[in-house]
Write a structure and sequence with these properties.
single chain; mainly alpha; 11 helices
């Protein structure tokens, strides 16, 4: 053909194989995903090496998000340092009061709990010996004796574990002290600290960091207050239901439900499963079945009513994104990672959306005449 004496198509170099557009797009996305994955792994690795400091700062931000409105309200009539002190001391007194109530409840029910759990274990053994399980009574007795022999032979391991737990307790107390120390400064002068940080950045990125930071803080405060409200509602529902059913340890189990609700999707079912085991041991399979039904009902209330309404001011993520975030956080940093994962993803997504909106507004330019 004319114009193609060497037999090649126009616009093609010799010997270069054709690349499909789909493969080209997949390659482009692949290297970007590799870069993002490497960055996320590096961030979690750095945070893992300084996890006590990271957890302390995170807890300080949580305390600030919860107590900032109270401190601002008190600051209208009191000096700012005194308002911060009143807010922090008052919250500490409330938390210690709740813990004291739980301890007093457990101590007051200790004798009856031992009797009820002893009767409950015997009831479960008789239940397992009947159809459809038909377990051998000697097998159950052998399991109890094996547990006793294991504890006796591994007494030194148990003691060393307890001692290491005491060391962990020191780390926890240190982390809580650092979190309280951080929250004091965040509540007192967090705005000034943020403005100072932005002022140290290059002028070219200062505005973008400020916009992203403000959007991230709005999302974090919305998520924190929303999840605390959801957890408190779940705890009240669980506590009232267990009290009505006569299940022992209703108050401690409600407190467990409160803390477990901070892990989306899996926290509440795990806490209610513990409540079902307690109900099975103390009240039998009928009450345990009612508690399992309670798990389903509260899960539906939380998923279809509380989260859509209460969390409407925070970034609403797809359930699949939430599940992947929780699993990835748990794999990377255990329980702390599972708690931090969803607010971290929400904050990053809101910052991206804010920067994207700002970029689109600048791209449009000034309005015409």
């Amino acid at each position: 053909m004319p114009g193609s004496g060497d037999g090649q198509l126009p616009g093609r170099t010799g010997g270069e194989p054709p690349v499909a557009p789909v493969l080209r797009a997949a390659a482009a996305y692949s290297w970007r995903l590799l870069v993002v994955g490497t960055l996320v792994y590096a961030v979690f690795s750095v945070l893992g090496r300084f996890h006590e400091i990271t957890v302390a700062v995170f807890l300080g931000l949580v305390v600030t998000a919860m107590l900032r409105p109270v401190a601002d309200l008190l600051a209208r009539r009191l000096p700012r340092p005194l308002a911060v002190a009143v807010a922090l001391i008052g919250s500490i007194v409330v938390v210690l009061g709740i813990l004291a109530l739980v301890g007093e409840t457990v101590a007051g029910e200790r004798a009856s709990l031992q009797r009820e759990f002893g009767d409950g274990i015997e009831r479960i053994e008789r239940w397992l010996e009947q159809p459809p399980f038909r377990l051998n009574p000697e097998a159950l007795t052998d399991v109890q004796s094996r547990i006793g022999r294991f504890l006796s032979s591994h007494r030194s391991t148990v003691i060393s574990t307890a001692l290491s737990g005491a060391g962990r307790l020191v780390e926890v107390l240190t982390t809580l002290a650092l979190a309280l120390f951080s929250s004091v400064f965040f509540l007192h002068s967090g705005d000034r600290q943020w403005h100072w940080f932005c002022a140290q950045l290059p002028v070219s990125v200062r505005d973008r960091v400020s916009v992203a930071g403000c959007a991230a803080w709005r999302t974090f405060t919305g998520y924190t207050r929303g999840i605390v409200l959801v957890a408190a509602t779940n705890a009240v529902l669980v506590g009232v239901a267990l009290y009505v059913l006569g299940v022992p340890l209703a108050v401690p189990l409600a407190l467990l439900e409160f803390f477990a609700a901070f892990i989306p999707l899996i926290g509440s079912p795990i806490a209610l499963a513990v409540a079902a085991v307690v109900a099975l041991a103390a009240k039998g399979p009928v009450i345990a079945a009612v508690v399992i039904a309670l798990i389903v009902v509260i899960g539906q209330i939380e998923g279809h009513l509380l989260h859509p309404i209460v969390m409407s001011w925070a970034v609403r993520l797809h359930p699949l994104v939430v599940a992947l975030s929780v699993i990835a956080g748990a794999v990377a940093a255990g329980v702390i990672g599972a708690v931090v994962a969803v607010p971290l993803v929400s904050v990053l997504w809101s910052a991206r959306q804010a920067l994207r909106a700002t970029h689109a507004k600048h791209a449009e330019g000034p309005a015409g005449p």
